[in-house]
Amino acid sequence: MFKKILIANRGEIALRVVRAAREMGVATVAVHSTADADAMHVRMADESICIGPAPGSQSYLSIPAIISACEISGAEAIHPGYGFLSENAQFVQIVQDHDLTFIGPTADHIRVMGDKITAKETMKNLGVPVVPGSEGGVPDLEAAQALGDEMGYPVIVKATAGGGGRGMKLARTAADMANAFRTARSEAKAAFGNDEVYIEKYLGRPRHIEVQVFGDGKGNAVHLGERDCSLQRRHQKVFEEAPGPAITPEQRAEIGRTCAEAVAAINYAGAGTIEFLCEDGNFYFIEMNTRLQVEHPVTEAIFGVDLVREQIRVAAGYPMSFAQDDLTINGHAIEVRINAEKLPNFSPSPGRITQYHAPGGLGVRMDSALYDGYSIPPYYDSLIGKLIVHGRDRREALARLHRCLGEIIVDGVDTTIPLFRALVEEQDIQTGDYTIHWLEKWLEENL
Ligand code: ADP
């Protein structure tokens, strides 16, 4: 096993990795920007190294600084968390070239899945059902219009390099196509430096269902069921649950097996998520994320496994500690993403936390890097905590969520907590009757 690993991240996910490593007897090195000198991950890790100034581009995204920190500290492996360098194939290659271990899949797998067109082609060839759409990239507006007419509207124009909901534009009718095509392209160019786009049939009322997979890199892989992440704002998840309230055990077994077989066939290593839109019982692949997801704790809760521990074990060359038959679902879990954002516009709300009180008790997990007196810097993501509840069934999980939202205190900045207090009262949330469009509509009507 590794003696020491470096965590190339910050915030709650850096703490999450420290916790798993510590339980395994693995020492941790935190890296941080000057703005994060007082951050919780720096305090909790065994060692810490300042790697640059506040902007992420000069610190958490600085490959030379992170490699140097490994060499100075003697860390043997790097856990990337999510975001930052977690899906950067070039980084993985550089890590390996320095005889260090990347805790995650290979550079090749990251590259293939990081490009949504090649990801879709690969998955299709592996027998995974995909959203109907263009074969590969769409070179120009004429081709886009021809395809739209052939497929029938509405269609969605998406950036192959896309992520975080950017570079995605809906064309409801043929008249929208020119605008959708041009804006998707220019947004993609600006955000990702790659303006290649492709076209998909726009699904009108799907749920976002994603399958957690895990592979050992040697042809063995399992699935850990699905998460329903349909409650989204601007294509970004805000509330996630497992198991999916609208997925039957038969559907789970079938799509799960398809996904596990697909990743086993490519010798995938570590944690991955295969995302689908699900409508009328049919699954349509949209993308694969080759990393740990923000919402992984709901899966951990219902399966009773530690995915980060498993990632570290497999990266160190150990076999997976579970086989498919060992994995059974116990109860129901829900996560809500607590962001430092001001409603109704969700504008960032950095600042000093004057009082923080985490909820507790049976079936409650609070993953957060907050503490009393902490100042949330304005430079990074607005996620400041994840409240995860686990119950014997969905009803109990919801009652627990309701109870926890009454206990939690985050004073000093605006947060999305009031949004969740309102959502748990909603009939559709209580019955699980929602699609990917439900929240946007609710926000329009209620905020
Ligand atoms: P990103 O990588 O930017 O998150 P995804 O391809 O994962 O982009 O899509 C994010 C979200 O956008 C989905 O969860 C869904 O809400 C919406 N979306 C994507 N593709 C489609 C589609 N073909 N039809 C309807 N909604 C879609």
From TrEMBL:
It catalyses: N(6)-biotinyl-L-lysyl-[protein] + hydrogencarbonate + ATP = N(6)-carboxybiotinyl-L-lysyl-[protein] + ADP + phosphate + H(+). It comes from Jannaschia aquimarina. GO terms for biological process: fatty acid biosynthetic process; malonyl-CoA biosynthetic process. Residues 120-316 form the ATP-grasp domain. Pathway: Lipid metabolism; malonyl-CoA biosynthesis; malonyl-CoA from acetyl-CoA: step 1/1. It holds the Pfam family Biotin_carb_N. Residues 1-444 form the Biotin carboxylation domain. This is Biotin carboxylase. It is an enzyme of class 6 (ligase). This protein is a component of the acetyl coenzyme A carboxylase complex; first, biotin carboxylase catalyzes the carboxylation of the carrier protein and then the transcarboxylase transfers the carboxyl group to form malonyl-CoA. Acetyl-CoA carboxylase is a heterohexamer of biotin carboxyl carrier protein, biotin carboxylase and the two subunits of carboxyl transferase in a 2:2 complex. Its EC number is 6.3.4.14. Keywords: ATP-binding, Biotin, Fatty acid biosynthesis, Fatty acid metabolism, Ligase, Lipid biosynthesis, Lipid metabolism, Magnesium, Metal-binding, Nucleotide-binding. One of its GO terms (molecular function) is metal ion binding.
